[in-house]
Write a structure and sequence with these properties.
The complex is a heterodimer of chains A (158) and B (423). Chain A is mostly helical and 158 residues long. Chain A is 77% helix and 0% strand. Chain A has five helices and no strands. Chain B has a six-stranded mixed β-sheet, sandwiched between helices. Chain B has a five-stranded antiparallel β-sheet with strand order 1-11-10-5-7. The chains are: A mainly alpha (158), B alpha+beta (423).
């Protein structure tokens, strides 16, 4: 709702539908134990935000770091729920420790995202620079994805 | 341990890629900012990490347990390197369960060892392999997962639980060794048998002085000696009717184990024949060793489907000693088993049957035709029981409503009154 706040009626209509779909995906992931539905749910939430940014053509949105930290929290908690399906007998205090790690990650994410937003605001005037940076980041993430996919197979032996 | 991709790693990488591409396409840096936390977690989680070294070993307190009882086990874990979260799951066969939990999650420091206690329970008698242990180690951010299986499987024997038995079927004939059964013959014993005239050589202590005074001649008491008997437990493994956690074969094995234990306590010799697709036998013997041999032979009992006709000739002669009581334990579902009972009776064996009643396990069905078939089947069973009765084979019906003890008492009464049929 924070992502859609202040959006036009059309954006709100689309955004609410996407948020509902995201909720269904996340609930499905938790209930059915399908971990692939978690990033799908997060992507749908992000799609709602992207719709708002693209359709309303708002200036640089300062709420983005907050949304980024919130999205990370949602995804982390969903994966945590999936891990809890193992019904493993854990140690006392483990959940608190895990919660602290997740909150710390969210805080660090907030800081990093705010810094990134500030940097992007600075380089916003140089259009080509941000294009190149974005292209490099996208290519880098794809390479990283490919490496990760190959990694377990190469490191398969003991 | 083998490194494996975690769902979190794949999901975070996908979200990062999608977010960055969308940011580029829509020319909105906010979208890159939105997925930056996922990129942060990935970069932190994928830093070079030491491969976890963990060893786990399962120790079970005993290799024998009675079905339904708990058995203590210990899971010993030792970590060579620090592990933020180590998940251990004990691989258990069907019908074996861990009472509290079969999975544990631990945080271990380098060189730290831990012992985890758990209780295992076998839902049914049988031979089981417990283990190995599945290990899964995760880093603090849960991005990378290492998996392995460690430890060997441990054999576990679940013995059938005993049914309550106060009385047993007494064979018609006894053997030569001392036992608990009062023989029909006369000799040295405790049980009074008869009076007879004194003959030289009789002991003075056996003179019945009151009777001698009445007859004006020396009269001595005669006794029945206490002798052992031979019992052959004849288990039907041709068919098994199973429904809602109850099975005729499971019950038959439980009854057989209980009967064997009680007969062996009386110093009787007990043998075993499991008669079905696969023939197993154990020669009659006595003592604790025989009891364990019997139970362990029973644990291997299972239904092996066969369409070949089998008769009494396949049973080795030495397994069926003369004058032995052949006690069949059967649901009376297979014609080959019933025919063999008749053959044994025809050969002069003392035969009785404990019928593991399958009627309660059969649903009559919703349709009229089904119910008609069910009634016909019940009538056929009544005819079968009458035929066995005519052959002089007493049948103890053991069902959910009647315990084994009561069923055996009914047969004892029948055998006491019935005359042996000529066959």
């Amino acid at each position: 709702m924070l992502a859609l706040w202040g959006g036009s009626d059309a954006v709100l209509a689309v955004g609410v539908r996407l948020a509902a779909l995201a909720l269904v995906a996340l609930l499905g992931a938790i209930v059915l134990g399908w971990s692939a539905l978690v990033p799908a749910g997060a992507a749908l939430l992000g799609a709602g935000y992207a719709t708002r940014l693209a359709a309303d053509d708002v200036p640089l949105d300062v709420r983005a770091p907050l949304l980024a930290a919130g999205l990370l929290l949602v995804v982390e908690l969903a994966y945590w729920s999936l891990e809890a399906r193992l019904h493993a007998l854990g140690e006392r205090g483990e959940d608190l420790r895990r919660l602290a790690v997740v909150l710390l990650l969210a805080l660090a994410s907030l800081g990093i995202a705010a810094t990134l937003l500030a940097v992007s605001d600075l380089v916003r005037t140089g259009g080509l620079a941000i294009d190149l940076l974005g292209a490099a980041a996208a290519a880098g993430s794809l390479v990283l994805l490919a490496l990760l996919a190959l990694g377990p197979a190469r490191a398969g032996g003991r | 341990m083998r490194r494996a991709s975690s769902p979190r790693l794949v999901g975070f990488a996908a979200l990062t890629a999608v977010g960055l591409v969308a940011a580029l396409a829509l020319r909105r840096p906010e979208l890159a900012v939105l997925v930056s936390p996922f990129a942060l977690v990935l970069s932190l989680g994928l830093r070079p990490l030491e491969r976890p070294v963990v060893d786990a070993q399962l120790v079970v307190a005993a290799d024998r347990v009675v079905e339904g009882d708990g058995i203590d086990a210990t899971l010993r874990v030792r970590a060579g390197t620090a592990v933020d979260r180590l998940e251990l799951r004990l691989v258990l066969p069907d019908l074996v369960e861990a009472v509290d939990a079969d999975a544990f999650a631990l945080r271990l420091g380098a060189g730290e060892a831990r012992e985890l206690s758990l209780t295992l329970r076998c839902g049914r008698w049988g031979l089981y392999d417990v283990g190995p242990v599945e290990l899964r180690a995760r880093d603090a951010l849960r991005v990378v997962v290492w998996e392995s299986r460690t430890g060997s499987t441990l054999p576990l024997k679940a013995y059938p639980r005993s049914e309550r038995l106060r009385s047993l079927l007494a064979p018609r004939e006894t053997q030569v060794y001392t036992g608990s059964e009062v023989a029909r013959t006369k000799g040295d014993g405790i049980e009074y048998a008869d009076l007879r005239e004194y003959v030289p050589g009789d002991r003075l202590r056996s003179v019945n002085w009151r009777a001698s005074a009445r007859r004006n001649a020396l009269v001595v008491n005669e006794q029945h000696p206490e002798r052992n008997t031979d019992v052959v437990l004849f288990v039907d493994s041709f068919a098994d009717l199973r429904q809602a956690g109850r099975s005729t074969l499971d019950d038959a094995v439980r009854a057989t184990a209980s009967l064997a234990a009680r007969y062996l306590e009386r110093r009787d010799r007990v043998g075993l024949v499991t008669y079905g697709g696969l023939l197993r036998w154990l020669r009659p013997g006595m003592g604790t060793r025989q009891r364990f041999l019997l139970v362990e032979t029973l644990l291997e009992t299972g239904v092996e489907p066969t369409y070949t006709w089998r008769d009494v000739s396949v049973i080795p002669a030495h397994v069926l000693p003369p004058k032995a009581l052949v006690l069949g334990v059967t649901p009376l579902l297979d014609a080959r088993y019933v025919a063999t009972l008749g053959d044994l009776r025809a050969r002069g064996f003392d035969v009785a049957v404990v019928e593991v009643d399958p009627v309660g396990l059969v649903d009559p069905g919703p349709a009229d035709l089904d119910r008609l078939a069910h009634r016909l089947w019940l009538l056929e069973r009544e005819v079968l029981l009458a035929r066995l009765s005519r052959l002089g084979i007493a049948v103890a019906r053991w069902s959910e409503t009647a315990d084994l003890d009561a069923a055996l008492e009914g047969v004892t009464t029948y055998r006491r009154r019935a005359r042996l049929a000529r066959v």
